[in-house]
Amino acid sequence: MKNIVLFLLVAAIGCSKKFVTLYPEGQVNEGNFYKSTADFQEALVGAYSPLRDAANVAFSLEEMRSDNTFLDYNAKDRGGSGTEDLAEFLDNSSNTTIETIWTADYQGIQRTNVILDKMKTPPAGMNDSAKNQITGQAEALRAHYYFELVRLFGSIPLYLHEVTDAKTAVVNRSSVDEVYAQIEADLSDALGKLSPPTKFPQSGAITKGMVATELGHVYLTLKQYDKAAPLFQSVTQMGYALLPNYADVFKTSNKNSSESIFEIQYKSGTDNQASQFVYYFIPTTPSTGAILGPSADYNNTEGSLNIPTQSLINVYEPGDTRLDASVGVIKGHLDAQTDFIPDSVVSILSNKDTTGRGYGFTTSAAHRFIKKQYNPPYTTPLEYNTDDDWPVYRYSDVLLMLAESLNEQGQSGAALPYLNQVRKRAGLPASTASGQAMLRDTIAHERRVELAFENKRWFDLVRTSQAIPVMTAYGTDQKKAFPFLLPTSYNVTPNKMIYAIPFRETQVNPGLGQNPGY
Q1: How many Å is the Cα radius of gyration of the chain?
Q2: Cβ contacts of residue 372 below 8 Å, gap of 6+?
Q3: Residue 300 has what DSSP assignment?
Q4: DSSP at 322
Q5: Of 411, 191, 405, 378, which Cα lies nearest the Cα of 292?
Q6: What is the pLDDT of residues 409-428, one digit of tens each?
Q7: Strands 305-308 and 69-71, how do they pair?
Q8: In a designed cystine with 266, which of 135, 207, 275, 294 is the match (CB 3.0 to 4.6 A)?
Q9: What is the pTM of this model?
Q10: What stretches of 19-160 adopt beta strand conformation (E)?
């Protein structure tokens, strides 16, 4: 646990009176901080920040692990292969992306623990409303970080208090059940402290709607459908609504809209809060101007990741407006150095691939890319610097999880109206699926296309015990289509349902052990 333990050790030393006894005026330090409501609110902002650090890499572990996206193989650059390994089930404990998300989530947990411990003796003058808002958001954040970690890694260390010395910085793993029990406890308490949104667009802070949604999602993951359904139903009474046009959901002008339950906030500029997802998702190219706009013509070396697959494109129904809103095609040509030079962005509806292999793997004259984080023209003079948020929960997700939780209780008739709200917005006829098994498949299909590229697919496959059969079949097709794949790729075993504990963590704390198969 080198990174997180070192982080916690620094925090512990910083909190020790032995080392810090003087508090210069104007310097933020524990000795002169947490003295007012404003101090706690500022600390809470800091506890949100690791959400961005985790989201910046999460698509590699939570979307590219699935049959929704792959990568554009770049024969000229065979440097780091960490993301490729994750997509092809070749990852191990030394994968740096795994370490990045582990560290980000635990930094978020440490920051929430400090807030929650300090709130045991709140400053004079802090009213009950402020106490509830700060405590509820901190609890929900801690639960959110743990929910991601437990689904990615299984049993993990459970930190519930501020680390104040070196001894408490090293903690061995708790069971999955213990971690889920703490997640449930945090979200249940936060549910009683927070309120639903009062206006749209929202501020971006966690509300009662997000807490109810995530707690329902936890129960859905644990197959406690009778507990999940009432929570999702409560969210339908909080003022949320689907936007009329699916494509509008992802426009930067519609951040934190009535469809947004919770999204990770990004802001372009020089204060380290910008996103850069579009750079990952467009091709690697020496010239981005034809894609991003003439004011954003850069040499993009970060691209060709999270490419929509032929497998996904094939399952969109005719007339489904979500396809064109979610996937775009970049046409271009190869220069003398065989670099891809984009010419224009075109609609996938009139530029569908017919090879079965997907654009970008044959002539390299066209590339698919994700449009949900694509809001041109980009005018900032800063490369890798955009405003696009990352959606965590949308109202359509709630409707589909509610439909699933009702169907799994044998209430398919009650589930259909929620499913059909989502289909209607997509321009599709109402589903008439009957029976639990048929409706289960229909809901899974709707989740795949409605929430494509939002880091839901891999978790959905694992949660519904479909990861091994689906990804094994998909891997067989991939190896037929792409000769560069190793024979050992897509060996989808039960051990691969979670990731390895980062190698450096196990070296600092051998008591952690390692997950089976790694």
Answers
A1: 23
A2: 250, 325, 326, 391, 453, 454
A3: B
A4: H
A5: 378
A6: 999 999 999 999 999 999 99
A7: antiparallel
A8: 275
A9: 0.93
A10: 69-71, 156-157
